[in-house]
């Protein structure tokens, strides 16, 4: 008897649409593997609680946060997603007081799905553009060139 697994792209899409965009953290156990690891330059998170903390921080800083899938493709257990992240900076983030400024940044994330859940991801986000968009009018914000 064979068990039918959810296609990897469907699992990744649920994380984006239901959890990140829909703010339904109760879906995390359905889409993230027990051994989940998230990696980005200079950062590594392990487990669902860490991801929920990251998403909660993002939602506090950008209450209208939305991740739009620009392209998604995959083969086997691997899924690549190109995306645009938009929102309005209305809460503190990394020590930066709310600016009220809208942001629109691009990124890519590479996901690996095992046993019907995401087990690891690697993300690259256009962080330099984010910092420029949040910069103060006087050019003294976190992205200021000196």
Mean pLDDT: 91
How much is the radius of gyration in Å?
A: 16 Å
Distance between the amino and carboxyl termini: 64 Å
Computed structural class: alpha+beta
Largest sheet: 6 strands, mixed
Helix count, DSSP H or I runs of 4 or more residues: 4
DSSP helix fraction: 25-40%
Model regions low in confidence, pLDDT < 50 over at least 5 residues: 136-146
Taken from the alpha-carbon principal axes, the silhouette is globular
Structural domain count: 1
Share of residues in strands: 35-45%
Order of helices and strands: HHEEHEEEEH
Task: Provide tags for this entry.
single chain, 146 residues, alpha+beta, Nuclear Transport Factor 2, Chain: A, 6-stranded mixed β-sheet, 4 helices, 6 strands, globular, disordered C terminus
